[in-house]
Amino acid sequence: ACNPAFALKSIQAEDKIGTILPCNVMLQEVEGGTEIAIINPISMVSGIDNEEMKVIAEQINEKMNRVIESM
């Protein structure tokens, strides 16, 4: 799952980021409910020397955390 606006901003900031876009979300049915696994976008871009991309990853991380907290 990915937010198209953040995907575009990410690609504009770092043209090769498409290979590791920080938008991966996995839902899995488990006994008693649903498990949500989300890759930490800040970790995904930590090896990239691009401050703009790090800011975008922080914004994505904040949004993902709000989604998780609302569940």
Describe the structure.
The chain has a single domain (4-69), classed as TATA-Binding Protein. The chain has three helices and two strands. The chain has helices at 4-13, 41-44, 51-69; strands at 25-30, 33-38. It has a two-stranded antiparallel ribbon. A hairpin with a 2-residue loop joins strand 1 (25-30) and strand 2 (33-38). It starts with a helix and ends with a helix. 14% of the residues are buried. The mean pLDDT is 82.
Layout of helices and strands:
Elements: H1 4-13, E1 25-30, E2 33-38, H2 41-44, H3 51-69
Antiparallel strand pairs: 1-2
Helix pairs in contact: 1-3
Short characterization:
With 71 residues, the chain is an alpha+beta fold. The chain has three helices and two strands. Helices cover 46% and strands 17% of the residues.
Keywords summarizing the entry:
single chain, 71 residues, alpha+beta, TATA-Binding Protein, two-stranded antiparallel ribbon, 3 helices, 2 strands, elongated
